[in-house]
Amino acid sequence: MSTYNKSMALTGEPPKSLSLNQKMAVFLGTSGLGILLLAVFNVSFPNKTLWLTLSLLAITIGVIWFSWDAYSQKLPGIKNDGVWFKSISSHGLWGWIAGLALTGFYIVLYFYPEYLGLVSDGENKGVIALFDPLSQLLSGNPASQWFVYGTLYTVAILAFGIKFLWKYRHNRYERLRTVSVMFFQTAFAFIIPELMARLNGDKILNGGSLPYYDLKNIWPLNYYNFEGYRIKMFLSSGEIGFALLIFGILSIFVITPILTYKYGKRWYCSWVCGCGGLAETAGDSFRQLSDKSTFAWKVERWVVHSVVVFVTLMTTAVIYSYLGTDTSKYWLTKSTFLIGVAVLLTLVFGWAMIFKRDQLQKDAQYGAIGYFVIILALIGFHFFSGDGEVFLFKSGTLRKSYSFLIGSIFSGVIGTGFYPIFGSRVWCRFGCPMAAILGFQQRLFSRFRITTNGGQCISCGNCSVYCEMGIDVRAYAQKGENIVRSSCVGCGICSAVCPRGVLKLENGPLEGRIDSNQVLLGNDVDLMTLVNKK
Amino acid sequence: MEHVVIIGNGISGVTAARHIRKLSDKKITIISAESEYFFSRTALMYVYMGHMKFEHTQPYENHFWKKNNIELVHGYVAKVDTEQKLLYLADKSSLNYDKLVIATGSKPNKFGWPGQDLDGVQGLYSKQDLELLEENAPNNKVCKRAVIVGGGLIGIELAEMLRTRDIPVTFLVREKSFWNSVLPSGESEMINEHIREHHIDLRLGTSLQEIHPDENGRVKSVTLAETGEEIECNLVGLTAGVTPNIDFLKDSGIALGRGVKVNRFLETNVKDVYAIGDCAEQHEAIGNRRPIEAVWYTGRMMGEALAQTICGNRMAYNPGHWFNSAKFLDIEYQTYGWVFSERNKKENEVHFHWRHPNEKICITIAFDKESETLLGINTFGIRLRHHVFDQWLSEQRSIDFAMEHLVDANFDPEFYKNFESQIVSKYNADFGKSISLKKRNLKRIFKIA
């Protein structure tokens, strides 16, 4: 018994080495990354178009080749064999190395783009120069670090999307969902905004320029959408610009609530969103690493809602800062705007507290009251303290710290860089204010739920382990309760991995949606009524 | 304060403890020799397969027990003194009880095969069995071939587990077709095909003769009873069913049959001693059920019922409609009501069977020949809504009604291909009916008036 390692009694040493095909695929993919890395170190490639194409193809084919070898030869079904034996997907050495590498990449990308070869006035160098031809082709402009990032992001979603499609080829919900995120990333996040840039200065925009606008990116996820410079650009770009501005406002106040009511927040988080798209494809191998403890859930509630408060304050302050005071020039002035914000928040808060209070956890109630009081106090304070800074802060400072702390550090460095450490949805779960707002609605006013199937749960825990949002799904299923959680993004994996057919994502009537009956079907009917009485 | 002691921290014992805690503030102690905390036995296979780590099989966080004031004792009960109401543990300590719940579960069957106690021969039931399997079959270098004896649910799970580590498996099934004492032939046949698809060497109508040791007393090979063929192997998995784990009760005065004898109130012959779960044996079987029900769900249900009795509301174990589920490699199986195999079927039971032309999907519905009342349904590769079928069985609906409303019972994930129209047209053809399928109706499904 020489191979038996006592210290790892239950994880053993199963044969999870890579096959020859997989090794070659890894080599190919890595060499594609290698070209990019050489470019970073200013190795000059004679024919940029050729080498960029080679690099991106090598990465894509490497991923597809690997997945083909891993899945296509096997019968359709759940493919989680050895997930917790592989170093990369179980907090092993490779997991930490990947985490550090990704984190490093994000730090350079956000804070030191010059190391990637960004030259603001003059010809790009390094890896950014390598992407110049592609950028010229799409938008007619030289590449920036964001173009490089956007391209790699899209390649990742497409290549790993194909992997995911193979892995879940027996599951039509997963297939459609994945095709959807692949489409929205490629078209909406990548190609359309680049092409839109070609219109800039055209007479169709009255000679104006549109801001870079990924149409599916909705405030507060794109916290900058209503900043002064963008509003100016929208308003100077004729009817199209104006329509886009209106679309941005409607997105959050009309479109989002309707779709979330009908389908839950999954319509956005796991069908459309780019952050979700990356998490569901490239991040799929790390979904099981999310923390399921009740402690983590508590942290999640406080952190994510604090971000909502932060982004609301910040956006209010930013809009406030560029509004005028003279009602005769423009109807929306500093004061009317602030009063409007206060009224809107009061309406939402009042509605939740009056009609839905019993559906909120104790600490959610305290938190909501706390936040509400703070915001109203700040708005009130403003009116009493006279003109000047809003909420005691300079709007610029507020905006800068949000963009640094939340926009860069949280969503990028931690959110994606830490995939192999905290799981694939760290940002969506702890940081995304959009997810929190959609979640608030999903919990209180939506037809969506995950139905638990009578008494069929065997408490195995597959659902909880593979929930990327760290929801302890089993805790509900084994009691016979439906799962109606604000954080649920509706990826459907809990239902897919369930070996007993217990879970189903569905939209149905509000009535009886949150079924607090802790009674499992199968036992004596009288006993069930009795137990349910509590 | 009354002290309730529960021996066994499986689903039955833990459910009883949880419900007793809900109903009362009695002192509760759970004793287990197997594991420190409650874990889901059904999930052990996923630990070996690398889908989960062992701690993931524990449905409650470790602080749950203290928070709910349920005391856990990690120890083995060697003897029960019902006169003194005293338990003696293997470490010589003892424990008083006022009420005792025996929930000790099962142990794998051994039928006296020569060589059944050799190294490398094991069952698959407990956490210790899993640890042993990790020693006996860590990979296909150490375990070049495994032979599994017994074609039931554990057998096929063990085969699936070993295949994830590319260990060649020979699967000995005594019956002519896999699990055909329970499954009707069409279904059983489909599972045979699926087992072979997974490159498992399935030997039907084959039983074990003898297990041979090597010079170190480890298993070396087995011989088959029917052909005398010798198969070299490094692991023999004995998965021919389970027996109640009650040896420690032999001289306790508690009446024993194959299991601990209980009445409908789950009471034994000794006052204040109860038995639930796999180890309990009903004096008389309830309906079509077996006197010993070694099933996750029934264990849970007995725990729920007994908690009422212990807390002063004496209540019989009165299970509702039978249901069960399993997964055969990639094929999910659910059953509601009773569908018997050809072997055990009564004369009045008629079957309607549909199978997908090329995918591994099928369905069998049993109904009464005379009244055409629904008796039960088996589905493979289609999920069904438990409460809908439960309701139809309670309302004694006819098979025609079920066919008409079949869409309401579907529980497959959204966007899945549905086969109800094919199923109904085959039903119409088979039985000369002209049922037309009703559309899916949310009001009916969610029981809203």
How does the SSE layout of this entry go?
The complex is a heterodimer of chains A (534) and B (449).
Chain A: H1 20-40, H2 48-72, H3 93-111, H4 126-130, H5 132-139, H6 145-167, H7 172-198, H8 228-235, H9 238-263, H10 266-269, H11 274-281, H12 294-322, H13 334-355, H14 362-385, H15 395-414, H16 419-422, H17 426-431, H18 433-444, E1 448-452, H19 462-465, H20 473-477, H21 493-497, E2 503-507, H22 525-533
Antiparallel strand pairs in A: 1-2
Chain B: E1 3-7, H1 11-23, E2 27-32, H2 44-48, H3 63-67, E3 70-74, E4 77-81, E5 86-89, E6 94-96, E7 99-102, E8 106-108, E9 121-122, H4 127-136, E10 146-149, H5 153-163, E11 169-173, H6 185-197, E12 201-204, E13 208-213, E14 219-224, E15 230-232, E16 235-238, E17 242-244, E18 260-262, E19 273-275, E20 280-282, H7 296-310, E21 323-328, E22 331-337, E23 349-355, E24 362-368, E25 374-380, H8 386-394, H9 399-404, H10 420-431, H11 442-445
Parallel strand pairs in B: 1-2, 1-7, 2-3, 7-19, 9-16, 10-11, 10-16, 11-12, 18-20
Antiparallel strand pairs in B: 4-5, 5-6, 8-17, 13-14, 14-15, 21-22, 22-25, 23-24, 24-25
Helix pairs in contact in B: 1-7
- State the major sheet of chain B: 5 strands, parallel
Determine the CATH topology of the largest domain in chain B.
FAD/NAD(P)-binding domain
Inertia-based shape of chain A: globular
SSE order of chain A: HHHHHHHHHHHHHHHHHHEHHHEH
Net shape of chain B:
globular
The portion of residues assigned to helices of chain A is: 55-70%
**How would you classify the quaternary structure?**
heterodimer
- Arithmetic mean of pLDDT of chain B: 96
Q: What is the count of DSSP helices of chain B, taking H or I runs of 4+ residues? A: 11
Strand adjacency order, main sheet of chain A: 1-2
Whole-number count of domains of chain B: 3
Structural class by SSE content of chain A: mainly alpha
H/I helix tally of chain A:
22
How would you characterize the largest beta sheet of chain A? 2 strands, antiparallel
In the sheet with the most strands of chain B, the strands line up as 3-2-1-7-19
Secondary-structure class of chain B: alpha/beta
Rg of chain A is 25 Å
